[in-house]
Specification:
This protein is of the alpha/beta class. The chain has two domains: 71-213, Lysozyme-like, CATH 3.40.80; 214-284. Helices cover 40% and strands 7% of the residues. It has ten helices and five strands, in the order H-H-E-H-E-E-H-E-H-E-H-H-H-H-H. It has a five-stranded mixed sheet, with helices on both faces. A hairpin with a 5-residue loop joins strand 2 (107-109) and strand 3. Helix 8 (233-240) packs parallel to helix 10 (270-283). The site of zinc ion has 4 residues, from loops.
């Protein structure tokens, strides 16, 4: 039997432990995150060593160190959009919170539109991997990664795309990211990645100011425009940003993003070329 005085105390402790369970589902994880951030940012507090201080270190190149106060922190200039190829938000979060996977992203957006931020925008998340866009060969350093909870063979929900557009609006304004710099994982890693899939509504994003889209007049049967005779589609892909070392792979990524037809056919039809020419004029 529990004494009268003990009962309220027990109840309080049960309530407290329950609320701490729900509140602290990721407590240890977030503590480990803070420790890692502290380690990563420690490098910013170091003042550069001089040759005199480190005579044997060949990487030390300074004769003298004099600090300036005119600086700020470098900021992201691209956004890379992914689909998770997983079955749920929880599964993705698990993947991004265990160290052995070595993958992460700044944001994860669930099918119901919930946005989960997993990393400060200024830190380098591991989402892009090997690849390039234009001359940028380290997209992890220059971009923000956004993962959409989607298994790769289904449409994205309206709520998810609405949330994505809200996130993109904030990022574009906050970091002054150019319209052309909103790309997909498949765009920067042709032949290696196919996300986000052909179900991803790039036109809707372009209409909202994130990436470009072609003039859909081109699709009308009576459209009379032509590409110039000397138009080189592979050069156009390169100028847009695609790595063309494997032209068939670059064409596949282009089709995945823009034409969404015969994605695995490395040939470009006359219609594909007209779409590509129109986009080249916008991206160049
Ligand atoms: Zn991806």
């Amino acid at each position: 039997m529990i004494s009268k005085g003990l009962l309220p105390a027990l109840l309080i402790s049960v309530v407290l432990s329950f609320s701490s369970c729900t509140r602290d589902a990721y407590y240890q994880n977030n503590k480990a995150h803070q420790k890692k951030v502290a380690e990563a940012t420690q490098v910013l507090l170091e003042t550069p060593k001089t040759k005199l201080e480190s005579p044997n270190d060949t990487l030390v190149i300074n004769d003298q160190w004099i600090g300036t106060t005119n600086f700020s922190i470098r900021k992201p200039n691209f956004v890379v959009i992914h689909h998770t190829a997983q079955e749920s938000l929880d599964q993705t979060i698990r993947t991004f919170t265990v160290t052995r996977t070595s993958v992460s992203s700044h944001y994860v957006i669930s099918r119901d539109g919930t946005v989960v931020q997993m990393l400060n925008d200024y830190l380098r998340s591991w989402h892009a991997g090997r690849g390039s866009w234009g001359n940028d060969t380290d997209l992890n350093s220059s971009s923000i990664g956004i993962e959409l909870d989607n298994n790769g063979s289904e449409y994205f929900t309206d709520k998810q795309i609405e949330s994505l557009i809200q996130v993109l609006k904030v990022l574009k304004e906050k970091y002054n990211i150019p319209t052309a710099n909103f790309i997909g994982h498949a765009d920067l890693a042709p032949g290696r990645k196919v996300d986000p899939s052909e179900y991803f509504p790039w036109k809707k994003l372009a209409d909202a100011g994130f990436g470009y889209w072609y003039d859909e007049k081109i699709l009308q049967p009576d459209y009379e425009g032509k590409v110039p005779v000397n138009f080189n589609p592979i050069d156009a892909l390169r100028i847009i940003g695609y790595n063309i070392s494997d032209p068939a792979a670059a064409i596949q990524s282009f089709k995945l993003h823009f034409t969404k037809r015969e994605i695995n056919n490395p040939e470009l039809t006359d219609l594909d070329k007209m779409i590509l020419y129109d986009l080249y004029l916008k991206y160049r």
